[in-house]
Amino acid sequence: MNVNLTPNDLSHVVAADRAHVWHHLTQHKPYETVDPRVIVEGRGVKVWDATGKEYIDAVSGGVWTVNVGYGRETIADAVRDQLVKMNFFGGSMGSVPGALFAEKLLEKMPGMSRVYYSNSGSEANEKAFKMVRQISQRFHGGKKWKILYRDRDYHGTTIACLGAGGQDERGALYGPFPDGFVRVPHCLEYRKQWDDVSGADYGRRAADAIEEVILREGPDTVGAICLEPVTAGGGVIVPPEGYWPRVQEICRKYDILLHIDEVVCGLGRTGTWFGYQNWGVEPDFVTMAKGVASGYAAISCTVTTEKVFEMFKDDASDPMSYFRDISTFGGCTAGPAAALENMRIIEDENLLDNCLAMSERLMGNLEKLKEKHAVIGDVRGKGLFCGAELVADRETKQPVEEKKAQAVVAGAMVRGVIIGCTNRSLPGMNTTLCLSPALIVTPAEIDKITDAIDGALTEVFG
């Protein structure tokens, strides 16, 4: 660790954090007697805390964000240079990095045409929801206003996004939510909802369940469906083959806009630029945030087709026809400046290829752990986005106690590896270990990650 702070400085930082900072997703009662962990430096896939302890970060910043790793001076330089030249202007005007990144991004997204900037994944999804509602008002008499979402999917932390979220514990205590968000079944074959089918047939059956909801609600009332390409915090669920083609077919059949939430999967996480590209899907909206700039600056994008964009400029004489929305910090130039350099790094260092190669090693190691530890019921993933679901009994698939899953996370951390786990999202089902190391991860680092999990599983379950 190379930190320009003395031990006294670091002690002051920890004390100030403990006294004044309200952490995300954290119960602070324990901090009355123990210090919070403060991360002070990162290089590559490693981070150091204020005590000097070193960790391999197997979750890219804790929330699947730092895709190109820590300590990228060229991104910091690009942001610094841009901010000195022009740091901000409201999004009703253009900027150099905003125009150039939009152009570069759309080269990776055939069929998509326009980029709307904001500053978080939740906000990007809110923009898409608003677009759907405005399209309903202007072209469907206000009837086609409902938005479907999938059980176990997560789309953000605002009230509307929680209303469109399939993780009941996330939304607990925050209702009532806005009307018009309708749930469809999840597609996790490991926890089958239809016992008579499997594989691609199961995928098609899970998609058919979406059609059943549409017919129940009335196709003329459903404007869009919002889905993650791979369900993230709901348990790292890769849809079975047959699922996505059928979803696309259903959307076209009923004139329903397809919104793909790539906030987690976007910018290389699954081994392609975007998760939906693994299945040849042609969306109407794609939202993204986390990996767009690898956490070096705040940025999110709501990307649309030209057909969607044209719906908001069809009648310039109508003062209500355009998209009357703004995101203040969507006008900050740091985001697109960082995103441009982030994308260059992914390209020049062939990180999509490394993602696929390291995915094969990571999944292979997890399968070996499954053979060794009966508590692992299922291993699944796509690219460097993998999960291992822990069960007390493989036959019944009864989940382990959630506190034991958290004990595995704690055990890995003691061994110098930070991993994730579904947490306070799915009642009784928060037992899937989550792994998403940076796309630069090496074979040796992959092995250290799974060795730490091996040791933690042995310690907790024997």
From TrEMBL:
It comes from the Bacteria. The keyword Transcription does not apply. GO terms for molecular function: transaminase activity. InterPro entries: Aminotrans_3, Aminotrans_3_PPA_site, PyrdxlP-dep_Trfase, PyrdxlP-dep_Trfase_major, PyrdxlP-dep_Trfase_small. Its cofactor is pyridoxal 5'-phosphate. Keywords: Aminotransferase, Pyridoxal phosphate, Transferase. Transmembrane segments: none annotated. Gene3D superfamilies: Aspartate Aminotransferase, domain 1, Type I PLP-dependent aspartate aminotransferase-like (Major domain). Belongs to the class-III pyridoxal-phosphate-dependent aminotransferase family. This is Aspartate aminotransferase family protein. The lineage of its organism: Bacteria, Pseudomonadati, Pseudomonadota, Alphaproteobacteria, Rhodobacterales.
